[in-house]
Amino acid sequence: MIELIDLQKDYSNKTVLAVKQLEISSGCFVGLVGNNGAGKTTMLSLILDLIKSTSGKVLLKGNDVAKTENWKTYTGSYLGENFLIPFLTPVEYLSYIGTLHGKNKADLDLFLLEISGFFSNESMENKYIRDLSLGNKNKVGILAAIYTSPELLILDEPFANLDPGSQSWLKRKLTELNQNGVTVLMSSHDLKHVTDVCSRILLLDNGNIINDINVQKNVLVELESYFNVH
Ligand SMILES: Nc1ncnc2c1ncn2[C@@H]1O[C@H](COP(=O)(O)OP(=O)(O)OP(=O)(O)O)[C@@H](O)[C@H]1O
């Protein structure tokens, strides 16, 4: 589903990401972890063609993301606030994004019902996105990415700023989506969440993938040791 080939990103002659070869198969649930500045957002941004690589390429289903558009129809993503439209309410925003993906009013009503445990209808209709708290803005972005019924879902720190109940809801939702065949790639600083839901974890350090972990029992302990969590 995702291939990174000789992918490199430099800023002012400093390499912030360098991945010789990486393949992520369809149906995987992959977590991307690494310290601040390790290159997680850079990697996700390159996969989504939001920034240009210095060299190398990203293929989605064999197509170069920098040269084709088709992958956008099956890829849902949320990397941060600048994905949102601040002067719309959450419902208006979801409706707009849904229209781009062939959804109608009935689809939206059903979706709003499904996600009522995560984001109440009251917050969805009565405020502009610009006036929401950071956590609620993140929820809107994550929901919009999910609402497009993607085959591939890419999220940057989806648990950040969410209250504990919402984190738990999101973990269940992402697991369910993955069980239904959605390929998920997400970054996170929450090692517990990552080891709970992911089947594969990529550890980034200074722009390099230094560990590619098949998630098993003792992975949390191993990761906590790397991150000096006591
Ligand atoms: N536009 C830019 N100009 C210059 N340097 C940049 C730019 N964007 C990112 N960087 C640098 O690239 C490196 C990787 O940043 P990136 O945001 O990918 O890290 P990250 O792993 O997502 O970090 P965090 O966990 O703090 O979000 C950092 O050193 C950052 O300063």
UniProtKB/TrEMBL annotation:
It comes from the Bacteria. Keywords: ATP-binding, Nucleotide-binding, Transport. InterPro entries: AAA+_ATPase (IPR003593), ABC_transporter-like_ATP-bd (IPR003439), ABC_transporter-like_CS (IPR017871), ABC_Transporter_VariousFunc (IPR051782), P-loop_NTPase (IPR027417). SUPFAM superfamilies: P-loop containing nucleoside triphosphate hydrolases. SMART domains: AAA. GO terms for molecular function: ATP binding; ATP hydrolysis activity. Residues 2-228 form the ABC transporter domain. This is ABC-2 type transport system ATP-binding protein. The lineage of its organism: Bacteria, Pseudomonadati, Bacteroidota, Bacteroidia, Marinilabiliales.
